[in-house]
């Protein structure tokens, strides 16, 4: 009973705090421990910073087995104060599970410190958002290392804003010039 009350209290406190959202690209994993000895392993990843605030999940990889590929962007919310320098142990946690019909079996866990990946900057500026893939060790529930996880957290916490085209057509340039001329003409009058 006390645990239920404590969980509700923490949930209300987390809801009252200002939340921040970051995007994490979960790319793939290699050489995971095969925890499904009879059937084919179908892994998925659960991503969170604070489990009691928000948890995101990837799809199940039906064919990868011990070398799954997700290539999926997940959005994770956490209390904004966790990104401060005082919380040096705050991390993006990735728990990998094997999907099962009866129960989910834990495969392993990886974590990346927020202070190592979030560097600030402007999400619209490519120079502030370099492409960098992190490879981190996956640790079995027993504490032994087994496998690697490839992921990417942009330094700004958001991926680049997609544009339809980076080139300009002659017509767009002519329309922009006409607008500038019209504005200057209005100012002179």
Automatic annotation (TrEMBL):
<dbReference type="InterPro" id="IPR000008">
    <property type="entry name" value="C2_dom"/>
</dbReference>
<protein>
    <submittedName>
        <fullName>Putative C2 domain-containing protein</fullName>
    </submittedName>
</protein>
<feature type="domain" description="C2">
    <location>
        <begin position="1"/>
        <end position="127"/>
    </location>
</feature>
<dbReference type="InterPro" id="IPR044750">
    <property type="entry name" value="C2_SRC2/BAP"/>
</dbReference>
<dbReference type="Pfam" id="PF00168">
    <property type="entry name" value="C2"/>
</dbReference>
<dbReference type="InterPro" id="IPR035892">
    <property type="entry name" value="C2_domain_sf"/>
</dbReference>
<feature type="compositionally biased region" description="Acidic residues">
    <location>
        <begin position="172"/>
        <end position="189"/>
    </location>
</feature>
<dbReference type="GO" id="GO:0006952">
    <property type="term" value="P:defense response"/>
</dbReference>
<feature type="region of interest" description="Disordered">
    <location>
        <begin position="168"/>
        <end position="189"/>
    </location>
</feature>
